Amino acid sequence: MFFPEYRPRRLRRTEALRSLVRETELSVKHLVYPLFVVPGQGVKEEVSSMPGVFRFSVDKLKEEVKEVYELGIPAVILFGIPEKKDEVGSEAYAKRGIVQRAIEAIKKSTPELIVITDVCLCEYTSHGHCGLIRKGEIDNDATLEQLAKVAVSHAKAGADMVAPSDMMDGRVGRIREALDEAGFSHIPIMSYAVKYCSSFYGPFREAAESAPQFGDRRSYQMDPANAREAIREAALDVEEGADILMVKPALPYLDIIKTLREEFNHPIAAYQVSGEYAMIKAAGRLGWLDEERAMWESLLSIRRAGADVILTYFAKEVARKLT
Ligand code: PBG
Hints:
5-aminolevulinate 1 binds at residues 205, 217. The protein is an alpha/beta fold.
């Protein structure tokens, strides 16, 4: 009987052989853990659609970040839920705002942990949109001024990196300019360069109380049907000074991660979003999927597609398994 000379199974026979030729690694060093900060004292409440993910008040955050740091996770990304919202999202850049206080607390307790901040208005505006509203429309250029203020206020509070997620045109350039003027030319921007208008943000909007009160985000977030546009978006952000390019969500957009990896030499990040996490958790709870294996496989695919950095709610679980 004829056999080809190459038999792929030869290298799959034992774990040692498989490990010897494994092409992709998932390490805790690549991971960023998202954290939700809420007003009040002594608060640690689970997000109902995201089992294992909690919202913390600033005082409770310290214990959490200590655990994150000790697990070897190098970075967190902060999302704040303010005490009060208004039309222009002014709490987003308030000196004693929720995120600003959280940054200070983290930097005091675990100074080496990288603190990234999400720069957006949707958690802070009464209408829940990521930009300012004028005549029922999102006013792009007026929003840029607000975002610049938010980014600078985060840097002043001690953030190590800012991550604009609003999808306004020109925001990376405007934020870069504002940071430089304020003496923060050393603070990198991780741009949510390619952010799709996705149903997979559902659980996050519960956690961050940021669902739009009217309409949707289709006039600023990307159409899931578009791949070539992703290159245009990323190219613009590179031109405007982005240091890291992010694709979001991750698993439904692996092709986009791969394209960006091939087209650009910047570090690529991918955000495994709330709905991706919720889906695996839910199926795991129902006994329909092996949750742990699904977690590994999805994260490994995101790495395989070309992501250097992964933002994921699974970060602590992964770290616990690896240590
Ligand atoms: C804010 C923002 C969102 C997410 C990150 N930053 C929500 C949105 O755009 O509606 C989603 C993250 C997740 O789903 O885990 N603009």
